[in-house]
Write a structure and sequence with these properties.
CATH class of the largest domain: Alpha Beta
Number of helices: 7
Distance between the termini: 39 Å
CATH architecture of the largest domain: 2-Layer Sandwich
Low-confidence stretches: none
Helix content: 25-40%
């Protein structure tokens, strides 16, 4: 099925409102951080489920029959609620992407909200509360930041270009990573969603992650595509479709690049 431009616009507006409300709440909660360990490698704060509820409640007001996949569920697991209506739309939510930063009072985190239909994002929003930056994109709608169009850059791989890397990367890409780290000003922001937004606006020439979940990258990959960039698996295969109804929280790899240098960057991580 295909959504109308009016339907897409309404969903995008809903996502923007939900992300902003959650980001504002996160900035309030950061003054009173309490953390627990969700897994050996993951922290969760009191703010994560609070901000997630803010987003879901806001979306449900407009779309009570839509489905949800979100990071914070019971017993440290993901949250999943299947659609109940005729439209098989899934909202994919990360209430605080960059929880470790947030837990330590580092104001480099984001709120990520995407809507997916038939295995692909059709709406994507990433909000950076610390800078009041709202990144938006939708199917057939250009990527923007605070209402201004953004595009990936066409910069060469060089010592002045920035490339986003994740905190935990699979050893299988170590050779490519070494090249990237030796030839660029590589950066790890601690928020996969925010790094993808930076690729979309041209601040980074690319980014790689091997251990991200759907809610980390669903919105960001749409931003990059609508900004003229390219996303794939680390192996260079098509990233989508990914069907939320079948997704169980497994880690996935994503490689993002500007369209001109995609083959060069892909080659680095296939060697």
């Amino acid at each position: 099925m295909r959504l109308s431009r009016t339907e897409i616009s309404a969903m995008l507006e809903t996502a923007v409102v939900a992300a902003r409300l959650a980001g504002q709440r996160a900035l309030e909660e950061i003054l009173y951080i309490r953390t627990t360990r969700k897994s050996p490698d993951e922290l969760v704060t009191q703010a994560d489920p609070i901000c997630q509820k803010v987003i879901i409640d806001q979306i449900k007001e407009m779309y009570p029959d839509h489905g949800f996949v979100a990071e914070e569920g019971p017993d440290g697991k993901m949250f999943k609620l299947a659609p109940r209506g005729d439209q098989p739309i899934w909202w994919v939510i990360d209430p605080i992407d960059g929880t470790n930063n947030f837990a330590n009072g580092v104001l480099c985190f984001s709120v990520s909200v995407a809507a997916m239909l038939e295995g692909r994002p059709v709406v994507g929003v990433i909000f950076d509360p610390a800078t009041e930056s709202m990144y938006t994109a939708a199917e057939d709608v250009e990527a923007q930041i605070n209402g201004t169009r953004i595009q990936v850059n066409q910069q060469e791989i060089n010592r002045f270009s920035c490339f986003g890397v994740d905190s935990y990367l699979d050893p299988s890409i170590s050779s490519g990573l070494k090249i990237v780290m030796s030839k660029t000003r590589f950066r790890c922001l601690g928020s996969t969603a925010l790094q993808l937004a930076y690729v979309a606006k041209g601040a980074m020439i690319g980014a790689v992650t091997t251990n991200s979940r759907l809610w980390d990258f669903a919105a960001g990959t749409l931003l990059i595509e609508r900004a003229g960039g390219y996303v794939s698996t680390v192996e260079g295969q098509s990233l989508y479709p990914i069907y939320p109804q079948e997704y169980e929280g497994q880690m996935l790899g994503v490689l993002a690049a500007n369209a001109v240098k995609k083959e060069e960057i892909q080659k680095l991580f296939r060697e």
